[in-house]
């Protein structure tokens, strides 16, 4: 069975209770040790508080991805490019929070590294492959980062169009010189092997189509057969020999 493809987080938020997290969000209710992950005291809420994450779903359209998280004190300025995580059901005013969490969001297409998971543990716990971003109350907060895998596969229809030597319908009446220039654009470098037109054709592109047509040598089928005729004399002679006798 193929391994499931990890999806970058598309959001991190704070929820007053697990049921306050909207659809598509998952509240982190337990630590890696199995203890209740209630962060209410760390956020200044007596009733409770939980971190929750959103991945957007495997079938969701590409959107922003969480690329970094920071846990800062309430006296620290907001880092440039970061936003304070939202609160569900709504922000509560007049409540002091000693620690705040900021996240950095970037479009998925422009993201090289993103956050894929978020976990809570006791302060003395160490999580392999996870990076500790800070502490809130009696808990340590860890995130897992990794490279964003981007598909480089090209649609088959687009690839077939590039392999076609026939110019687009709108270019049927274009000059041959423009067609050769169009071909040089259709065939980019593939797998590290560059493509370019032969120098003798490149030098003709700016001199007009007549010069190119003058250099064309049209051969008939008889000329081609005569030029590339190969009688296969050696092969036929070898095939006609009798196989050696077996003693």
List keywords for this structure.
247 residues; alpha+beta; Vitelline Membrane Outer Layer Protein I, subunit A; three-stranded antiparallel sheet; 7 helices; elongated; protein transport; MVB12A; MVB12A/B; Multivesicular body subunit 12A
As a percent range, the share of strand residues is 15-25%
Second rung of CATH, namely the architecture of one domain: Aligned Prism
* Coarse shape: elongated
Strand numbers in spatial order across the main sheet:
2-3-1-6
Distance between the termini: 57 Å
Class from secondary-structure proportions: alpha+beta
* Uncertain runs: 182-186
- Give the helix tally: 7
Helix content: 10-25%
What is the ordering of alpha helices and beta strands? EEHEEEEEEEEHHHHHH
CATH topology of one domain: Vitelline Membrane Outer Layer Protein I, subunit A
**What is the CATH class of one domain?**
Mainly Beta
Query: Whole-number radius of gyration?
Result: 33 Å
- Taking all residues together, what is the mean pLDDT? 74
Organism: Circaetus pectoralis (black-chested snake-eagle)
Family: Belongs to the MVB12 family.
Keywords: Cytoplasm, Endosome, Membrane, Protein transport, SH3-binding, Transport
Protein name: Multivesicular body subunit 12A
Give the SSE map.
Elements: E1 11-15, E2 25-27, H1 40-43, E3 50-54, E4 64-73, E5 83-84, E6 87-88, E7 99-107, E8 113-122, E9 131-136, E10 139-147, H2 156-163, H3 176-186, H4 199-202, H5 209-215, H6 221-227, H7 233-240
Parallel strand pairs: 1-6
Antiparallel strand pairs: 1-3, 2-3, 4-7, 5-7, 8-10, 9-10
């Amino acid at each position: 069975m193929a391994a499931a493809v990890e999806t970058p987080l598309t959001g991190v938020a704070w929820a007053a209770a697990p049921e306050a997290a909207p659809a598509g969000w998952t509240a982190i209710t337990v630590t890696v040790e199995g203890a209740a992950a209630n962060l209410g005291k760390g956020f200044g809420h007596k009733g409770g508080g939980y971190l929750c994450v959103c991945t957007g779903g495997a079938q969701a359209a590409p959107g922003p991805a969480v690329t970094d998280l920071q846990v800062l004190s309430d006296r620290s300025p907001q880092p440039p490019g970061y936003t304070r995580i939202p609160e569900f059901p709504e922000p509560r005013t007049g409540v002091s929070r000693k620690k705040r969490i900021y996240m950095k969001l970037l479009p998925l297409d422009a993201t090289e590294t993103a956050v894929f998971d978020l976990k809570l543990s006791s302060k003395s716990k160490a999580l392999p492959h996870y990076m500790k971003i800070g502490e809130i109350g009696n808990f340590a907060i860890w995130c897992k980062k990794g490279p964003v895998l981007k598909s480089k596969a090209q649609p088959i229809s687009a690839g077939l169009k590039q392999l076609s030597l026939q110019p687009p319908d709108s270019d049927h009446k274009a000059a041959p010189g423009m067609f050769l220039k169009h071909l040089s654009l259709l065939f980019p470098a593939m797998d590290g092997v560059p493509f370019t037109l032969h120098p003798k054709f490149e030098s003709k592109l700016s001199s007009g189509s007549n010069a190119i047509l003058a250099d064309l040598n049209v051969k008939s089928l008889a000329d081609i057969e005569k030029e590339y005729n190969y009688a296969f004399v050696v092969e036929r002679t070898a095939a006609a020999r009798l196989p050696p006798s077996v003693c």
